[in-house]
Design goal:
- The strands form three sheets. This protein has a seven-stranded mixed β-sheet, with helices on both faces.
- Helix 6 packs parallel to helix 7 and helix 9 runs parallel beside helix 10.
- Strand 8, helix 7 and strand 9 form a beta-alpha-beta unit.
- By secondary structure, it is α/β, with parallel strands linked by helices.
- The protein has two domains: about 110 residues, 2-Layer Sandwich (Alpha-Beta Plaits), CATH 3.30.70; about 150 residues, Rossmann fold (3-Layer(aba) Sandwich), CATH 3.40.50.
Length: about 300
């Protein structure tokens, strides 16, 4: 069976933002075409100024990001995900996709996915690696797939590190836009009593449930719902975490107070720096104060509480 290559064309000035979002759709790497500094980079790398004419004729105003979807996954899920994210971040784009014959691709990417230490307490382990030393850390085992959240992206890592600081023994945690379920599972490993994860994507829900089982968690301790934000959720939580895009966080900030205990914390990530003022204004408007702010590679994570 063939893999599918998805090619995203954007204005060159948006290539970095485009690539950051594309890396959310797959855990095994992306391929970027950016010709803006072709001559300078060629000289630095190869110490040569003779460049293929086809390369010199490339359109410097455009950039391209390529990702590859395995035959076991629905590539249209990735296409829909990317379109939604690019539109929400106002990035003009064009997406193409085609079969990609490469029998080695399926396993080659695994070489680059290694156990990752996150914060002070967590180790994320891909399922196919058995020879590792946890060094006293809680081990979160995961099968990377189409659902966003393998621990490698800045936004997921920011959330995991922040959860470590705020999740307490016995907490109830709500994870909106749960993707692979990694934040919910990590919360349980950090001492939470129970977690509820919600995602609008049925594939993400399936993946999150499977990842929960792998780590020994199931209902009622670990519940995964298919829904839009918190429309299927009831009750109050000590921690609400949302690792999604700025526009959805702005919308959700008007609803989250209903599900957050008075002394609870609202942790949000997936926000790029240019959207910071809009997001923080929404927090202020909806009765939240920011008690902490973290940044990694141009991505932001906020910790909020209800105003007294």
């Amino acid at each position: 069976m063939d893999w599918t290559e998805i090619k995203i064309e954007v204005d060159a000035e948006n290539i970095d933002r485009c690539a950051d979002i594309a890396s959310m759709a797959v855990p095994y790497g992306i391929y970027i075409e950016d010709y803006r500094t072709l001559e300078e980079e060629t000289w630095e790398i190869a110490n040569i100024d003779i460049i293929d004419e086809d390369l010199l004729n490339k359109d410097r105003s455009k950039g391209y990001v390529h990702i590859y979807i395995s035959p076991e996954e629905n590539y249209m899920e990735a296409v829909s995900f990317l379109r939604e994210r690019y539109e929400s971040e106002n990035i003009p784009h064009r997406i193409e996709y085609k079969p990609c014959k490469n029998e080695d691709w399926e396993n080659n990417w695994k070489e680059y996915f290694k156990p990752m230490k996150i914060g002070e307490k967590l180790l994320i382990r891909p399922l196919w690696i058995d020879d590792y030393d946890p060094e006293g850390r809680a081990v979160l085992s995961i099968e990377p797939g189409l659902a966003f959240g393998s621990g490698g992206h800045n936004t997921t890592r920011l959330c995991l590190e922040t959860l470590e600081k705020y999740v307490k023994q016995g907490d109830r945690v709500l994870d909106c836009g749960c993707g692979s379920g990694i934040l919910s599972i990590a919360s349980l490993l950090m001492g939470a009593e129970s977690t509820v994860g919600v995602d609008i994507d049925k594939l993400a829900v399936k993946t999150a449930k499977e990842n929960g089982k792998v780590n020994g968690f199931s209902e009622p301790q670990y519940t995964i719902l298919n829904g839009n934000l918190a429309d299927k959720v009831t009750g109050n939580f000590d921690v609400v975490v949302a690792n999604i895009v700025a526009d959805i966080i702005i919308l959700f900030s008007s609803q989250v107070g209903e599900f957050l205990k008075d002394d609870g914390v609202f942790i949000t990530s997936g926000i790029i720096e240019p959207r910071e003022e809009e997001v923080t204004a929404a927090f202020e408007k909806n009765g939240f104060e920011i008690i902490n702010r973290f940044e990694d590679g141009g991505w932001l994570c906020f910790v909020c509480k209800k105003k007294s």
